[in-house]
Structures are given as C-alpha cells and as structure tokens.
Amino acid sequence: MPRARTRAIVLAALGGLALALAGCAIRSAPSGVQLLVTREFGAHVVQRTSGLNAREGETMLALLSNAGAFPSSTRSGFVASIDGFSAAGQAAESGQSAQWVYYVNGVQARKPASTTKLLPGDHVWWDLHDASQSAGVPAAIVGAYPEPFLNGIEGKRLPVRIECTNVSERACSAVTASLRSFSVPAAIAGVGSGGAPETLRVIVGEWARIEADEEAQRIAQGPGVSGVYAFFSTNGGQLTLLDAQGQGLRTLGADTGLVAATQSSKEAPVWVVTGTDAAGVQLAARAFNQGTLEDHFAVVVHGGVTTSIPVPSPRSHGV
C-alpha cells in the first residue's frame, strides 16, 4: 500500500478516535467540589464553600449536610429548607412563592437531591426563588462558568463549538480566548454550521443575525420556554429585562449586550453572547469571563453596568 494512503488512513482513524473520546464519560483530574447556596436568583449568598471532597456515592443532599448547610427534605427527597431559609418563609416575607432549585455545573438538575450522585469537580448551586415563570423548563445558567465546559454534564465532557456570525471579529476571538484560558478545546465555525446534538454551543453575534437559530429562538419566547428573563424586540434593536414574575421592568437600546444560556429537553445547553448591535456584542464578549458571570443566572451589559437577570422586582422586599 502506498505510504501516502497509509498515512491518510491512520490520520482518519486518529481523528475518529478523538471525536469518540470527546463524547465519552471522561472527567478531568479529580478536584474539589464547589457549593454555593443563594436566594433570589443569586442576589443573596447564604453559603459559599470550595475544595470539598466528593465521597464515593455521596448525594447532593448529603453534600449539604456535610458542608454544614443544615438542609431539611421532604419524604419525596426534595429540599424544603437550607440553613433555616424555606419557601414558606420567603413567601411570608416577600409575598412571592418560592422553591429550592439546584444546578450542577450550570445545568438544572432533574432528579431529587437525595438520589443525584456527586462527582469530583462539580459546581453545585442551590437557589431559593420564584420559579413560577420557568416551571418545567430545563434551565441553564451562566454563573457557574467555566462550567459546564470544563467538567461537563453528569460526568460527561462534551465537545465545544463556538459559532460566530464573523469568525474574524474581536468578539469571537474574545470568547475563544476565555475558554482556552481554562484549557477548554473549542472548534470555531459559522452560525448554524450543524453538529452533533451533544455539543456545547456558544453563539456569538448580533441578535438580528442569530435569532433564526432554533435554540436561540427560545429566548424570544420568554422565560417559560427558555428560562431567560429577557427578550429582544422584533428587529433586535431593543432588549427588555424581566423580573421574576415575567414583568418587563426596563428596556434598553443601542450598545446592549446579553450573555445567557438556554436548553431544550433533547439538546445540550446553548449559550448566546449577543446584543442589540455590534457594540453590544462586543460588551457581551468582554463579559464572557468568570469574574463577571459568577453568581448570575444571566447578565446584561449596558452603559458600563452589568445587570443580573431576572431584575429584582419593586415588589420584592430584598429579604
């Protein structure tokens, strides 16, 4: 067999092996577990602990107990209160319904904490909030960055693809550089370039140019579909920020950026780094870093100010 043909076959085989490994249940080297407990979509921190050890077979509920967060659970295994904060108590103080919801590596868990197993390196975030507007939505949030890109979802590291309306623009380069600073390998492609369902996608570009993407369209349908408490105007030139009850509190125009994540029931989370215009996208790309995204469900950048969404409602007493 000619040497050139042999080399091509070997390279093809290695490429196929690399793709296969990218989708396998491969974890990074064991590292400490991070636990964050907050209220009202991250507005109030109850407890923050890092460097916890994941014991074999330990559940998310046991993690709370071992970290001294004092959880109480119902018979069904769901958490009713943490460190004395309960849904009933928050409802009495703020007049709003609430429940404890938890996220692992930035993705809302779908099983009771009493049965979900902890893995080394997991970022576990519990938040007490009014989930009435996004009930049943498999929400994804940005505040655990660099997760889920670093350690994956349920022990499975997924391929990462950055999709840009223009791969040569600074915004695309900024997002790529941020991920690679955590040694996260990422392919770069145009928006809508296709790919396997189990791929973590980051879409970068003006809203008017990315809204046709099937997953991005979920944001236009409100928190009841996307879990994101903001939506763009028809032409993409304005962004309306919502409170926890889905009411529009503020509308921003030019130079507005958004960093958010959404997820359908069949796909991996999709992140959007977008804006009302090119300047807004650039602001969103600059915000695509751990320090800015930390503890936020999603962020809006405008006028030099970073705003967490949902926006606190005037009806909230800030308990």
Question: What would you say this structure looks like, in words?
Answer:
The chain has 2 domains: 33-130, Ferric Hydroxamate Uptake Protein, Chain A, domain 1, CATH 2.170.130; 160-309, Chitobiase, domain 2 (2-Layer Sandwich). Helix 4 packs parallel to helix 8. The chain is 22% helix and 29% strand. It is globular. The protein has 319 residues and is α+β, with helices and mostly antiparallel strands. A 7-stranded mixed sheet has the order 10-9-11-16-15-17-18. It has a 5-stranded mixed sheet with strand order 2-1-8-6-7, covered by helices on one side. It is built from 9 helices and 18 strands. The model is unreliable at 1-30 (pLDDT under 50).
